[in-house]
Amino acid sequence: MKPPRKVAVLGAGSWGTTFAKVIADAARFSSNDDGHPARVVVWARRPEVATEIDERHRNSSYLDGIELPENVHATADPSEALEHADIVVLAVPAQTLRAQLRQVADVLPRSAVVVSLMKGLERDSDARMSEVICSELGLDSSRVAVVSGPNLAMEIAREEPTASVVACEDEEIAAWVAAAASAPYFRPYTNSDVVGVEMGGIVKNVIALAVGMCDGMGMGDNTKASVITRGLAETTRLASALGGRIETMAGLAGLGDLVATCSSPLSRNRTAGRLLGEDLTPDEVVASMTQTAEGMKSAHAVLHLARRNDVEMPITEAVVAVLDGRLSTTDMARALLGRDLKSEQDHRNESDDE
Ligand SMILES: NC(=O)c1ccc[n+]([C@@H]2O[C@H](COP(=O)([O-])OP(=O)(O)OC[C@H]3O[C@@H](n4cnc5c(N)ncnc54)[C@H](O)[C@@H]3O)[C@@H](O)[C@H]2O)c1
Ligand SMILES: O=P(O)(O)OC[C@H](O)CO
User: Fold this and answer.
1) Do both 241 and 160 map to the same domain?
2) Is the minimum distance from the CB of 69 to ligand 1 under 6 angstroms?
3) Where are the alpha helices (DSSP H) in the chain?
4) Which terminus of the chain faces fewer neighbouring Cβ atoms within 10 Å, N or C?
């Protein structure tokens, strides 16, 4: 497949803008049919953000100090961004995606491949973002790809070497999107396990909230490594119950993203958890953050999905209890450590014992 001629990115936050930079940098090394690098057009909700990106090649609200390539353009008009796009990248907060798609469905080119950058689960439906995209746009799942991995936007915007995963049921499409996003500092691997890749990115945000709480309460590395490792175990249980592959959880979109998010002060989810651990209420935490911490919104849906599938997720359960005000962060350790003992080799739920 030839490189894309035009890529539209809907969402000019930190990851949407950074991914636009990745695609634009990648395009400078591969020309399309016309012999020109792909045109990358970002749709920004706020006109002043679109103007700043388009005219000054900056997005100072989200990526302070980063210069964007000349072939990144921006508009506040979604039709202009989407017109003739071969690839449409979606990078808006997960809970707003469905409404956003309803507004643009008529102008989104039917032949485009749609790529989700989002790491959230829709509340009420428990739907993954790729499922929301397929149902709202009436697309076959083979036309939808997901990008996920240890991808803190600011590090990538600073061109620090990073790997990622492009997942799509159609392996040719995954390879095409990966080639379009392959920049000197960004190396995407392909994977056909969309469920596993997507679930890894969703649940790590909830586990990062828990690790952040440990930080906020002044706990050390033993505690955090214990939460990360058992967090991976419960992520793996849920992903495999939904049809994801266990090996995916040992890869970039599983372990890789979990480690990056739980250890980085750049992570919004870990930061939100830290503030909860410092005794702020969930409302105070949300009010103090200007960017999206998806775990705060998705945790309930993750737990709901786990219960519907008979999967035990004790860390997620404790995080949801803290978010609901039913459990204090100081009581969280007692609640988790007081559970019945079990074998680490037992990958079933505790209640499965016959
Ligand atoms: N930032 C990262 O490092 C990173 C990395 C990987 C994945 N992600 C995921 O990408 C998604 C987007 O994250 P982000 O970091 O770019 O978020 P962000 O908070 O930086 O930006 C969100 C963007 O969406 C826009 N927006 C907000 N509400 C909206 C609405 N109601 N309708 C339409 N647009 C709206 C905002 O104006 C902003 O442009 C999230 O699911 C996140 O988990 C983020
Ligand atoms: O800042 P966070 O917590 O949303 O994490 C960003 C990315 O998902 C890390 O891969």
Assistant:
1) no
2) no
3) 14-27, 47-51, 78-82, 97-104, 129-137, 153-157, 171-180, 194-216, 221-241, 246-249, 257-263, 268-277, 282-288, 294-308, 314-323, 329-337
4) C
